[in-house]
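chain below, 399 aa
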Amino acid sequence: MAISVVMPALEMAQETGKLLAWRKKEGESVAKGEPLLEIETDKAVVEIESPAGGILAGVKSHEGAVVPVGEIIAWIVAPGEQPPAPSVAAVPSGRTKTEQPKSSAVAPASAQSSASQSINISPKARRLAKEHGIDIAQINGTGPEGSITTDDVIAAKDFGASAPDATAAAASSAPLSAIARLMAERTTKSWTTVPHFFVVRDADCATLLELQKNLKSKRQSPQSSSPTITDCLVGLIARVLERHPALNSSWTGDNIRANPDINISLAIAVTGGVVAPVIQKANSAPLADIATQRASLSERARSGKLSPADISGGTFTISNLGMLKVDSFTAIITPPQAAVLAVGAASDRVVAIDGKPVVRSVMTLSLSSDHRVVDGARAAAFMNDLVGAIREPDKWLRL
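prediction:
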């Protein structure tokens, strides 16, 4: 029995996906679970596994195609079996399609409005065009049946497609990657719609640095992943979040959802932007497992090979710029998460202990919280416990 291969929905608001590459050619055998194709989402390039074993056949979409979510793009068939005959594709839901006016004369405002409504464009793309004052009648759609996609609107905004000198603008501009576009869109939306507030603390990290150094020297083989400071922080933060579930909650639009698992997203810089793969159930994972997961996720992120599971389910984010010698910074929340922790570099500072000046290794932590979910007292209590855990990591980490 033929099994369909469809454009997957990897994000809640996703309407289309871009097919980057087939890992198999039509007519080749593929095993169930074997990488079959690569899809570009707004977050990353994702490998999609074959839903069944058999022969790849009836490929309808090729590399570079932008395909609506749920549309069949190929079939997996048994040897000797033929893929089902193609049927007449329906216009994707949420879109309208009628003939555009052929007259080049300027129509009255009411007629222009009516014509605009008849253009084949997704609701999300129409809304984005309206926000940026872009004339959708001047955009050439690249989606199915000439429909205008969100990418088309973004390209029009970037290149000035609604302006008379669009050609000159395009010649002097470079398009943003999908990851960079999403980062710009989501950080803008988060910053302008989420009520951020910030709590900053300095943490004595001398013991943590010594612990990490000792663990590195004891690693079993050169191939094993040595825990980094980031790995230690993932383990510590996850354990502290067990005591402070509000920081591990999500804003759903009209209420607060308590997340049952503690899944830590790690902000990782890649070519063209930042991605945030997730360490699942970090509170119950030994430090060695966290280090192994983080190393594997980092490698796949930088090579553009993250899977849907790698980027799903995050409940709290860590952004560590300490390795880049940044003293302190504040980070923007990734909705629907309620908080993100920005970590600065560990540096020697003169501090007072028992009334006497001493030199200690200190790092600055900046917590950004969604005030709809977390109040100042809860944020402060979380930071107090976290500073204590960093000061005495052996009491908190699962080694």
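Confidence is low (pLDDT under 50) at residues 88-115, 160-172. The first strand starts at residue 3 and ends at 6.
thats it, cya
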